[in-house]
Amino acid sequence: MQAKAKKAHFWLVMDVLGSQGIPFVVFLVIARIIGPDYYGEFTLAMACVGLMNVVIFQGIADALIRVPDLDERHVSTAFWMNLALAFLTVLLAQVTADGLATFFHAPDMEGVIRWLSLLGPLQALISVQVVLSRRNLDTSILARRTFLGRSIGGAAGIGLALAGAGIWSLVVLQLLQALISVWVLWRADPWRPRRVFDLAHARTLARFGSHFMGGSLITALGACVDRLLVGFFFDPTTVGCYALAARLIEMARVLVLTPMRFMIMPVLSRLANPHEFSLSYDTMVRSALVVWMPVVLALGLNAAILPTVFGDKWQGSVVVLQAMSLAAFTMPVWAFVGESLSAVGRPDLYLRFAAGQVGIVAVCVVIGAQFGLTGVGLAWSAGSACMVPLALLTLRKVCGFDWEMQVATTTRIALAGLGFVACVLAVDHLAVARPWPALASTVLATGCGLCVYLALIEFVLVPGYVSRALRDLKGIVLPDGRGAERAAGTSR
Q: How far apart are CA 233 and CA 105, in angstroms?
């Protein structure tokens, strides 16, 4: 990746850190107050509304990234198309809210869905600005938007939860965050939609966007089909316990994988040579996998502290999180395939790949549900493993991708992950005989495991990788030689 792409990736990390880190801290507080039953109902409502709204953030506006000679008529046309789709999703939510609440045996869902549907128009108002920032690799404004919106919305949500608002504290939190995002982006970005709508441009955007929108819709269904099926087989309280474990995995996924997903299309769409494509894709997956592996494994190994953090009502989340953490070895290998296929001009295959993902996850979860909530967690991880061969074969067929390179990279990092697990378990075993607090033992074991993991990568499995990554990070944080100048000033 070029220097600009690396800088954009850094700001995307800051953006998703704000979008996940702040809400997670807020959730820590609210979850203890409202409990898994309300959270289960809110999770189901958000899954339904999210599926309706995916057409706004994933589709028409994303087509702007692929337009070679972008002009104002393209941009304004995409904006008005998105706004029209947003109001259609509001209408759909109002019509279906009652039926969805009845289907999931969750009466509070009806009003929640009706109010959450307003997120659609609010997202539509900023969808073009977000995509233009990604296209131009100018993502610092997205990070500022996220931090401000999440902070103010989170404070309001906690206050309402303490006041006894229950599930509605989460609804107000979501709407307030969206309103602040609109305010920040419209103040920071000078672009304004014009009163133009070009039918020819609309057809061009719709032709590409329809494939990407369909793929994104099915991908979103794949991301929430497990929660919807759990809601079908179990009660809202069980859904809440499952959703907590899934939320922790999702936090890791968004923090580690989402910044790279945003970079895939702008970077790979510029590469025509299969060898260059394979090298760039392998580099991106390796970067994601190196971070993803210890984060998700640590979640599983330390799942027993969940009742301490969230309260005894959330005890059911422990074994589910342990089971789902097995996806540490597989998810980054296939998580970027959809964007890669779109980058080479094959969004139609993105749609097929996403449909395969939904089918695999749904079948695995239905089978796992017959063995209880733990079975669902194991089935979810099995579904992730099943996606790996499908992803590698698809990329090889379409892009001439060197799948052997990817398998070798994944295997080396997986071995380092096993070293991390072995070290954490060994330190935990030794700490049992010591009169140390549980939290201190957990931190010590995880820290030792991380040291072993990084040492295995740096000196044995991927020699020099950690030091190169640190140099790249230094170049991003202190660009244009300022790091060297500061170092020289210090030595003087």
A: 11
Mention every residue, 6+ apart, whose C-beta is less than 8 A from residue 43: 227, 239, 240, 243
Contact 31, 244 (CB under 8 A): yes
Q: How far is CA 76 from the centre of its chain?
A: 28
- The alpha carbon dihedral of 75, 77, 81, 83 has a sign of positive
- Across 345-434, the runs of DSSP E, i.e. the strands, are none
CA 288-293-297 angle, to 5 degrees, is 150
Q: How many residues does the chain have?
A: 492
Give pLDDT, residue 163: 93
pLDDT tens digits along 214-248: 666 776 787 789 999 999 999 999 999 999 999 89
Query: How many Å apart are CA 372 and CA 370, to the nearest integer?
Result: 6
Q: Whole-prediction pTM value? A: 0.77
- Tokens 């809440």 belong to 240
Q: What tokens appear for 171 in the block? A: 């609804």
* Rounded alpha-carbon distances, angstroms, from residue 106 to 34, 37, 69, 156: 15, 10, 49, 25
pLDDT at 170: 93
Reduce the DSSP state of residue 361 to 3 states and report it.
Answer: helix
Cβ atoms of 7 and 479 closer than 8 Å: yes
Domain range annotation of the chain: 3-401
Question: Among candidates 201, 395, 236, 211, which has minimal Cα distance to 313?
Answer: 236
d(CA 243, CA 239): 6
- Per DSSP, 402 falls in state -
Q: What angle do CA 176, 182, 184 make, to 5 degrees?
A: 100
Residue at token pair 């923090």: 255
